[in-house]
Write a structure and sequence with these properties.
The complex is a heterodimer of chains A (262) and B (259). Chain A is mainly α. Chain A has helices spanning 2-34, 42-54, 57-89, 94-106, 112-120, 124-148, 152-160, 165-203, 208-217, 221-249, 254-257. Chain B is 36% helix and 23% strand. In chain B, strand 9 (207-211) and strand 10 (218-223) form a beta hairpin. Chain B starts with 6 loop residues before the first strand and ends in a 6-residue tail after the last helix. Classes of the chains: A mainly alpha (262), B alpha/beta (259). The interface between A and B is medium-sized, with 19 and 23 residues.
Chain lengths: 262, 259
């Protein structure tokens, strides 16, 4: 019975991979048949990707992008969680900050790029700053809401055992809000990647975004598609890594531990 | 020597502001629980029992009157009071294992001592083997047993219980009642146990405080002289049990005209 369920699950997974292979083969065939200058074949894109990863471009374009995304995401996550816990715990603050949060969240994050270019100028700091800006709001909003919705009985239980206020935030409010916080962080991670690509296209001379844009402008079509492949794989990898962390961190949560997620 | 705490409240009143006017939940309630006594507060649903318990435990301030534990006026939760809340899915922290939940009451002790005491307390409620499971992995009855273990580990001299068995199934409930009586017989902490179940109230209590509907005030105090140790079948078959149950039932059902 158990072995049967397992093989059924592997079979289901396999279907997804089969579909992926079929799609890539379709791309390959379509590009070969049409033989257009604007569409690279899958194999040439893969080849270009190999070249990006094995040449100096790895250090000039790929690694800086990774560094920016991770640094920007980490800063946004730390700021968002700390401020969110603070705002969510001390409800008196809420009416003061809520309109600001709602407004800033409603601003499409890419709009910050031209503004940041005025203020910061074109530098490495610019890209990390706009990534932080984009990724910060979903973390802040989810953490604030999570902290505000903490089950009152948890707080009362902590009071029965004389937990000090500052300890309460760390040992009750934080873990109780963790499912909400993780959901916010996941949104923030994909936003961080979007902001990285966009900022590198608009205001940088390094990075994967810059590489995709310049290769397109110099008609290095395979490299453009190689860059797209790279971003796709990176995005997928980041999300998979995030889910693996989430699975561990929220192991106590029945919604996650039941193995319902694929 | 371990001894249960006394609980006393004098002329307690509490109301909540709610539009258009405030609702009085407790009105001029006075009662006294002796050391080591098993006191049951019986009242109809929605009569303000939970508010009363929150006031007893110092989580809420009364508008008028005072609550005293061991003769001292309660301002915040007293040190040696343990509380078991009503809903099992809220009374434990879901992110901690059962053992860690119990150890939450033992913060401040060194690790080894705390772990030992937590394991002892879990063993007393029959959960020694489930110490490392998370709350969602065990039944509602086991979660409430853990909450009781936490109060035991805390060495509470007064345990306040808010309909602790109301949300578990009937068979589990009977087991929990018997287990609670066994533990209480060994330890002799004082208990204030709130319920709207007449049968449960009579079976457990030394002293029964019957409340009127909202606003809650004391309707009658009944001393339950059923012999201890009590056994589920023999105790409930006693004529005295039937009489007390009937009396309590009439008090609850009789509404206003009885008083």
């Amino acid at each position: 019975m158990k072995a049967h369920a397992l093989s059924a699950r592997i079979g289901e997974r396999l279907l997804g991979w089969v579909a992926l292979v079929v799609a890539l083969a379709g791309w390959q065939v379509a590009a070969e048949v049409r033989h257009s200058h604007s569409v690279a074949t899958f194999t040439s894109a893969l080849h270009a990707l190999g070249k990006i990863l094995s040449s100096a471009q790895l250090g000039v374009d790929v690694l800086p992008s990774l560094y920016r995304v991770l640094a920007g995401f980490a800063i946004a996550a730390a700021l968002g969680v700390v401020i969110g816990l603070f705002v969510g715990t001390f409800r008196a603050l809420d009416p003061w900050v809520r309109p600001v949060i709602e407004f800033m969240r409603a601003v499409p994050p890419p709009l910050i790029i031209p503004v940041a270019m005025l203020i910061i100028g074109i530098s490495g700091k610019l890209i990390i700053s706009v990534i932080v800006f984009g990724a910060f709001w979903p973390v802040l909003l989810n953490t604030t809401d999570g902290a505000r919705q903490v089950e009152p009985v948890y707080i009362e239980t902590a009071r029965v055992f004389h937990v000090a206020r500052h300890v309460m935030v760390r040992s009750i409010v934080l873990p109780a809000s963790l499912p909400m916080i993780m959901a916010g962080l996941r949104i923030a991670l994909s936003t961080a990647i979007i902001m990285m690509v966009l900022a590198e296209m608009l205001a940088s001379s390094t990075g994967i975004g810059y590489l995709v844009l310049t290769s397109q402008q110099t008609f290095d079509v395979p490299a453009t598609y190689g860059g797209v492949l790279l971003l796709g794989v990176l995005g997928w990898f980041f999300d998979a890594a995030f889910l693996a962390v989430e699975q561990r961190v929220l192991a106590w949560n029945s919604d996650f531990a039941g193995g319902t997620r694929v | 020597m371990f001894e249960g705490a006394t609980l006393e409240c004098r002329h307690l009143s509490k109301s909540f502001p709610s539009a258009p006017e405030s609702t009085t939940v407790i009105q001029d309630l006075s009662l006294r629980v002796q050391p080591g006594e098993f006191a049951v507060i019986l009242g109809p649903s929605g009569c303000g029992k939970t508010t009363l318990l929150r006031t007893f435990s110092g989580l809420l301030r009364p508008d008028r009157g005072e609550v005293l534990v061991d003769g001292r006026v309660v301002h915040d939760v007293p040190d040696d009071v343990g509380v078991v809340f009503q809903e099992y899915n809220k009374s434990l922290f879901p992110w901690l294992s059962l053992e860690r939940n119990v150890r939450f009451a033992l913060r401040g002790l060194d690790r080894a001592t705390a772990a030992q005491r937590a394991r002892d307390a879990l063993a007393r409620v029959g959960l020694a083997d489930s110490a490392h499971q998370y709350p969602w992995q065990v039944s509602g009855g086991m979660q409430q047993r853990t909450a009781i273990a936490r109060a035991l580990a805390h060495q509470a001299r007064l345990v306040i219980m808010d309909e602790p068995f109301a949300s578990v199934d009937a068979i589990t409930r009977i087991h929990l009642e018997v287990m609670l009586l066994d533990i209480w017989t060994e330890s002799r902490f004082s208990v204030v146990f709130v319920t709207h179940d007449i049968e449960e109230a009579v079976f457990l209590a030394d002293r029964l405080f019957v409340l009127s509907g909202r606003p809650a005030s004391l309707k009658e105090e009944i001393t339950v002289t059923l012999p201890r140790p009590r056994d589920l079948l023999t105790t409930k078959a006693l004529p005295l049990f039937q009489q007390l149950r009937e009396r309590a039932f009439r008090l609850i059902e009789g509404g206003e005209q009885a008083s």
